[in-house]
Amino acid sequence: MSGTEGGGEDRGGRSAGDGSGRTPAGSLAHRVPDLGALELLLAVARLGSLGGAARELGISQPAASSRVRSMERQLGVALVDRSPRGSRLTDAGGLVTDWARPIVAAAEAFDAGAQALRDRRDSRLRVAASMTIAEYLLPGWLLALRLQRPDTAVSLLAGNSATVAERLLGDEADLGFVEGLSVPTGLGSTVVARDRLIVVTAPGHPWTRRRHPLAARELAATPLILREEGSGTRQVLDAALGGLARPLIELSSTTAVKAAAVGGAGPAVLSELALGEELAVRRLVRVPVADVSLARDLRAVWPTGHRPTGPARQLLSLTRG
């Protein structure tokens, strides 16, 4: 006998067997055929043909033959007799088939349960988004998602960036979008769009008659119509200018800030995404600013270590499109 048969030792000096055909104890996965092999054996028993079993499972006949041989080596017994008339299970193969049926049935039940969990997850999507993204970007993304997932019910929770973080960390949302200067603690993120803040006023404001751009220090010293503290717009502006004067008016939505500016209450700083129509018809006028960058990243966010899955993952992919 060779050195690894009938109770010999492997190169490390470990026993390779006890002469009875039994293999040493180890991981169950190494001692029990996988589900694909057991499914194949059941198909051979039912159809009486290895080729027919291969076709039913969508694999080639050589692959099926190789899988049977591998299973026979693993178990140490012959399972299938092959002949020109077809394939017949040996007595050992018949026993293994009987044992395989409840295993495969249990796996099918497991798969059905897992699919039910996925279906329940995929039946709803909770999105939390800061105001600018919720108003000007998400509608298009959600419409595209609905075309792909018409059965997924979507709920949208709009608020400032701080509120979005609270919703995600409190398991009240599956995916969030923020527009602040940095990623809130405890969240992972990816950039989905870029934006700029711009200074606007009603047409009659003195700033619209300036011959030179507004200095950053003058903007910082001027009371402005602003979003509330905690909003991404406010954070970015404050950081870019190194501080702000006391707000002229403080409002909780982009739409409200625009309405106040259009009404002549004073200058405002808003997302370029939100101002297309107002600038086009000159309800508001853009005021250039020198020596300061008001660009910002818009991000998708989720709890650290829990990347989006299901419809949340699909929505994230649509933002990148």
From TrEMBL:
Disordered: annotated span: 1-28
Classification via InterPro entries: LysR_HTH_N, LysR_subst-bd, WH-like_DNA-bd_sf, WH_DNA-bd_sf
Keyword Transcription: yes
UniProt domain HTH lysR-type: residue ranges: 33-90
Keywords: DNA-binding, Transcription, Transcription regulation
Family of the protein in this entry: Belongs to the LysR transcriptional regulatory family.
Stated name of the protein: LysR family transcriptional regulator
